[in-house]
Amino acid sequence: MCRNIGLSKGTALYLFSVSKTLNRAVPAQFEQNLQTQDWSHGPFAAQGWTVTTWSDKLLCQTEASPLAISLIEAVPRRGPGPRIELVSIKTHEQKPLLIIRRSPNGGRPVFYYHAPDGALVLSSHLSLLRAWGVPLVERANMLPELYTYRQICPPFTLIADVMQLAAGDHAEAELEGNRWKLYRKPSYLPPPFQAKYALGADEPALISLMRDRLEASMLDTGIDCAGTGCLLSGGLDSSIITSIVRRHQGLADTVSSVYPFEDISTDVEYRYATSAAQALGTQHYVHLPTMSDYLHGTVDAIAIAEEPLMHLQSVLIHLILKDVLRPRNVTVVPCGEGADGLFGGRLQKLLTTFAAKPSLQLALQLPGVAPLLRQISARTNRWGLIAQIADKKISSITSFADPKHILWTLAVFGDRQWIKDNLHCSDVEMIGGRPECMVPFLGRDLRDCASILALLSESSETQVIWNKLGEAAGMCVTYPYLDQSVSDLAYSIPWEAKLAGAKPILRAVARDMGIPESIVARPKASFDINPERWGPRGGVFEPLLDLAKAVIDEPILRSLQSTYVFRAHTLWTALNYAIWVRLHIRNEPLDTLHAELDRSMERLGVASAYRASGRVQTRHSLPGSQM
Fold first, then answer.
1. Which of 405, 494, 520, 627 has its CA 20 to 30 A from that of 111?
2. In this structure, are residues 509 and 211 in contact, taking their beta carbons and an 8 Å threshold?
3. For 20-53, what is each residue's pLDDT tens digit?
4. Is the dihedral of CA 588, 589, 594, 596 positive or negative?
5. What span, in angstroms and rounded, lies between the C-alpha atoms of 313 and 405?
6. Where are the beta strands (DSSP E) in 2-78?
C-alpha cells in the first residue's frame, strides 16, 4: 500500500537560514522558490552572511524585504481579503537583529537550530531541517515529560539541539561576534481582570463584545461558504463556530467523525453532533472510518505531524481532513481548540473551590489521603484529578521548580508510578521544561497560570499537529478562540464570573446568537473514548504493538495494556513514540511500517473485519493466548 504524504504538493512549508556563504549543496526540494541574498548591505551590513529562504507558495507566501527577510503568511481563502499571519521574521532597523514571532492562533510551528558554524536555521518542519543538514537525534532526557503529558512543552522538543517557540512567543536573534544567538521572549502577557466585567454573563455589553470579537476573528480570515469546513462535535464551542459561519456565509454542511471501536450506545459525540446539526439547520455527515483506516491513519498522522499525536482524536481529524473535506475543496477549517483553557476547566474550578473552602484543601493534604485516593482512582477510573492534586502545593508564591506545585497536575495523562518505575526518573524530570516557560507568570492568580500553561503546552502543540494535518490535506486549520482580541477579553473577565456555572460566558454568547436552548443548556460532555474500548490486551490497538516492538520491548508494552485510564494513555504515548522514532529518528520508509501493519492484522486474524465498513468489536483472542 503506497502512501505519498511527505512534503507533498499543497503543504505549507518554510525554511529560513542565516549562514555564512553556502558551503553545502542545496537539497533538491529547495531549488523551487529558493531565494538567496548576500546580507552585506543595508543599515547594519552583517558582512559575509547569507540569507536563504524557501517556501511552498501554494499555501505559504514569502514577502521579501530588500534584506530578503521574509514575512510568511497563509493564503487560506478564495478571492481578496485579509490573511492570517502565521510566522513573521523581521529585521531591526539599526543593528543585526532578527525578530521572530509565532502567531498565537495560526498553528504554524517555529523550530530553530544553532549550527556549529554559527548559522541560525528556522523551519516549519523537522524533515526540512534534516534535508538542510541538521542531525535529528533523539533528546532522551525528555521522555519522562512525554510519557507524563503526552507532549513536550516548548521551548524544548524531542530532538536534541532543536528548540521551538510556543504559540504567541517571539524571539530575538542577535549577531554576537561570529555567531547568531537567539533569545526567546514570551510576547503574550494576558491582561489582568477588569472589575467592570464582574457581572459576567449578566452583563449584556460584555456578551455583545465577546460575540463581536469571535465573529471578527473568523471573518477576518476571508472565509466563504464553499471553502469552509466546519467540524461540528455538538459541543458549545463548535456550535458557536458553526453558527457564525452559517449566519455570515450561508454554510449548509457540517461534518464529524466517530471512532470505529466505539459502541454506538455510548457514543456521546455522535448524539451531540447529529442533534446540534438538526437544531442549527445544517446537513450533517458523520464519517465512520474502518478500523484499518484508523490504524493506518495513526501511522500517517505521526509521519505528517513529526511528533507523537497526543490525542486519539487527532487520527479522526486527519481522516476527516483527508477523506471528507479535501474532496470538497475546503481551504479553511475553524476549530474550537483553546476555549476550555480560556473560559475555565476543572483545575480552575477546583482552585476556586479550595479558596472558598480551605478546610477541604487541608483535608486532602492529611497523611494517607493521597495514596488512598489514587488507589480508588485506579480501581474505578474516577476522581483522577482529585487524586493527582491531593498532596500538591497550592500557592501563587510556590516556586515553579517545585515538582509538587499544583500546576504540574494539569493535563497529566500518564501513569506516574509506572513512569517512575520504568524510566527510573524523578518528579523533577517528569515535569521537564515546563517551569522554564512559566517563569514570566510567577505571582499571578493560579487560575490564570493554569490557563496560560494550557495555552503554552497542550494547546500550542495541538495547534501544531492539527495545522500540519490540515496543510498536508491542502487547507489551513484556524483557532478563533485563540485570536488575541478574544483571549485578551477572556482574561479581562474575573474567574468568579467565568466559573459561575459551566462556561456561562460562552453560553450567553450562544443565546445571543440565537442558538437553540436545547443545545445551549445541555451539560458539557466529554468526548474521550473509554479505555475499555482500546486499552486492554487483545484490543483494537494490538496491531500497532508489532510496529512498536522494534523500539520498545514487548513486555514493557504489555505491562501498559489496561483499562485504567492513566495506564492506557501511557500505552497510547508509547505506541506513538515508537512509531515516531522509526519514522523520524531512524528515518525508516513510511511504506515499510504500513506493510508491517497489514501483516500484523493478517497474523492476528482481524484483517477482514478491520477493513470492513462499520464498527468493530473491541476484544480479540490473540494467537497462542487465552483471553
1. 405
2. yes
3. 655 555 566 666 555 555 554 444 455 566 667 6
4. negative
5. 29
6. 14-20, 34-38, 49-55, 60-64, 70-74
